[in-house]
Amino acid sequence: MKRFTETTAVIAAALMASSATVAADDSFSGLYIGAEGGFDSTTFGGAKDNTRYLGGLLGFRYQMDSNMVLGIEGTYGNSGYSGSGGFDFSTPDFGNEWTASGLLGFAFGDDNDNLVFAKVGYTQTKFDIIDNDTDAVTSGDVTGLRFGGGYERKFGDILSVRLSVDYSKPESFFKQLQAKAGLLVSF
């Protein structure tokens, strides 16, 4: 009986160690949600406005045996741009923006708790143009491609911190650069 108990304990310890290794090997697989904020530099019609960005993100990733990470991610936020637009007769006021992106990354480190990634996707930013003389409002949106990349570090089983940069220039009169930091929770 003592031998059976010792053997069972050894097998249980080996299974726990192997399952911990498997869990460490796919640190970046699964559903995640997060909040991010940072610096936004938007150029609209020749005028530049440096503001803050606040937003959230939701995504799903899959880490392969080779430590390559594939994923999809959506963001929703606001840059706070409200200022000159390079036009004497009007003032732009940017509203909410959203993106949908594909993500490609590589996990590395002793426990694969580090991730470098690149992403490309679609972006849409809502805006209002306010006529300075009549206060009439014309609404529209700017759509196009967004490119980005960054670094993420996992702490524990569910929390990670991310640093990233996104760039888009969907129209000749509009371009945007964002440098952000985020806190993510994995499920």
Q: In CATH, what is the class? A: Mainly Beta
Major pleated sheet: 8 strands, antiparallel, barrel
- CATH topology, what is it called? Porin
What is the annotated CATH architecture?
A: Beta Barrel
How would you explain this protein's 3D organization?
It is a single chain. Strand 5 and strand 6 form a beta hairpin. The protein has a single domain, classed as Porin (Beta Barrel). The chain has 187 residues and is mainly β. The protein contains one helix and eight strands; from the N terminus they run αββββββββ. The longest helix has 24 residues. An eight-stranded antiparallel beta barrel has the order 1-2-3-4-5-6-7-8. The protein starts with a helix and ends with a strand. About 10% of the residues have low confidence. Helix content is 13%, strand content 67%.
Quick structural summary:
This protein has a single domain (28-186), classed as Beta Barrel (Porin). It contains one helix and eight strands.
Topology record:
Blueprint lengths: L1 H24 L4 E15 L2 E17 L4 E11 L11 E19 L5 E18 L5 E19 L3 E13 L2 E13 L1
Antiparallel strand pairs: 1-2, 1-8, 2-3, 3-4, 4-5, 5-6, 6-7, 7-8
Keywords:
67% strand, 187 residues, 1 helix, Porin, eight-stranded antiparallel β-barrel, mainly beta, 13% helix
